[in-house]
Amino acid sequence: xxxxxxxxxxxxxxxxxxxxxxxxxxxxxxxxxxxxxxxxxxxxxxxxxxxxxxxxxxxxxxxxxxxxxxxxxxxxxxxxxxxxxxxxxxxxxxxxxxxxxxxxxxxxxxxxxxxxxxxxxxxxxxxxxxxxxxxxxxxxxxxxxxxxxxxxxxxxxxxxxxxxxxxxxxxxxxxxxxxxxxxxxxxxxxxxxxxxxxxxxxxxxxxxxxxxxxxxxxxxxxxxxxxxxxxxxxxxxxxxxxxxxxxxxxxxxxxxxxxxxxxxxxxxxxxx
Length: 272
Ligand code: IP8
Prior knowledge:
Elements: E1 4-9, H1 11-14, H2 25-40, E2 44-49, H3 56-61, H4 83-106, E3 112-114, H5 117-120, H6 132-135, E4 143-147, E5 149-152, E6 159-162, H7 164-174, E7 178-185, E8 207-208, H8 227-239, E9 244-249, H9 253-261, E10 268-270
Helix pairs in contact: 2-4, 2-9, 7-8
Bound molecules: Isopentenyl phosphate.
């Protein structure tokens, strides 16, 4: 059996986070080329991508991460009047971003198979409900892609945000031949000792385990999910399964490739 690598392309890496629904096509194409190189190396690859400016901005405005809020006065938007409309708009925005991702892979001659979470998953957190093995039945024949999404939830919440960082944990648990998990993030080389704005190269934490302090970027004005902190926590859950976990700067595609094939690379390795 071939080794499988789960790769998460961060939303802030593949989109311009400040500007609503703007994909960074150049980065997406460079990462797609890395995906092809990985297949050429004989790896199976499952791709998970974040939302960036395609999901977070509107999800934040409508507080979709809190579920249905019956007694709240929201400022309406020209194209959206209530939370339920926002749910379907964000789902469509995610499909639009996914289309850009899929297109870049297909243009390189790769076969892709997209699994939008709102069609197969329920509830949030890495323990969400959904049959991963059945849904990803074809991961050895094509690049299966999934992404952070708004999913239906039980009870009065009705809906919530399932982050790509939660999806990767379940993929690592349920797909039998996963060898490593690679987070390709935007703007930083990995987990840093000091805030990214003042950090020097020597502030990169090369090996991180839970309990170690760090300063991360989590723009809570924009993000409805957990930024680097959530990646660190989820990464350490995965490391405990005996799977290698790396966080690398996705603006350097060659680092993403090295991480995927298990070479030494600039970045943070998460250990159990
Ligand atoms: O960027 C968030 O997914 P993430 C999904 O992987 C939405 O945390 C719709 C905001």
